[in-house]
Amino acid sequence: MILNIENDLNRFRQIVKGRVRKDLKRYMSSGEIIGKQGDKFVSIPLPEINIPRLRYGKNSTGGVGQGDGDEGDKVDGAEEGGGQAGDNPGEHLLEAEISIEELAEILGEELHLPRIEPRGKKNITSVRDKYTGVSKVGPRSLRHQKRTFREALKREIIGGTYNGANPVLIPQKEDMRFRSWNSKSDPQSAAAILYVMDVSGSMGREQKEIVRLEAFWIDTWLRANYKHIETRFVIHDAVAREVDRDTFFRTRESGGTLISSAYMLVDSLISEFYPPEEWNIYLFQFSDGDNWSAADTRTCIDLLKNRLLKSVNLFCYGQVESEYGSGQFYNDLRGDYGTDERVVLSKIPDREAIMASIKDFLGKGR
Hints:
Layout: H1 2-22, H2 24-30, E1 35-37, E2 41-46, E3 94-99, H3 100-111, E4 125-135, H4 145-159, E5 178-187, E6 190-198, H5 205-225, E7 228-236, E8 240-243, H6 245-250, H7 259-273, E9 280-287, H8 294-306, E10 314-320, H9 328-337, E11 343-348, H10 354-362
Parallel strand pairs: 6-7, 6-9, 9-10, 10-11
Antiparallel strand pairs: 1-2, 2-3, 4-5, 7-8
Helix pairs in contact: 3-5, 5-10, 7-8
């Protein structure tokens, strides 16, 4: 019975994964991933999967309407409904769980993303215990039953007390054997993800929602490639500051735009917390392409060349289209770094472009 349940569960998981794979672009652009539990699972609504129903008893005759009466007669006990009748079926929304690892696997397969080869090893280690031998001492929970009774058998045979007609073995203290283990320390591959976003008045709610959706899928893929992830969020108008995730996606301010202020803050965060020889560093910037002046843009180009690009695995610039943004910063970056493998530029005119942008950013496997 348990085996049948496991088989049914595995088949259901395959159905869920197939539906997510089929509708991946829609999930990426609509934000229909409605819940997250810890860092291991997400909940996904699957409205087109029929909910199974159990029917008890025999189905060979009749149903709810069996018995005396004519078609259309009112059923005893039924109440008159209010309002007008509709001709549309109700929607059955089934919420299914899928692990982050499975979601990342689907993302990688559909977008043909190469696996990332980590560059550095963080100066922390994980300890793995592996049972490799047998010891004469240890806790009861690790007693090796087979080896213990073997020793008891050997003792009785050597001592001449073994009775083949009544083979009862009672292990003594000297017969006890326990599993033993070795601890192995492994350095952890670690990644730091730094998100930068312009929050000036030209970046509206829709632009921030596009960034939020794209950041979720970026996180999903990177978490599948690294054991340890740290994420930092920087917002800026004319001044940059570090904030938490919720503030990052909700803040809207007015005023000018100085992108160099964000670059300088990111550089200080990397210098203080993320040595490049130990961390794999990813910098994602989102903007509508406006900057205060050509002089500040030149400062940004210099900071990228002399500081940031020497530290990061990848710098990704996503330009979210806005009716108020000029889009010039994309052209400036392309002019200086259009052929640099450490720099990826992507235009994101609307939600439908999120999938292509993710492939642009993560398709190099850096």
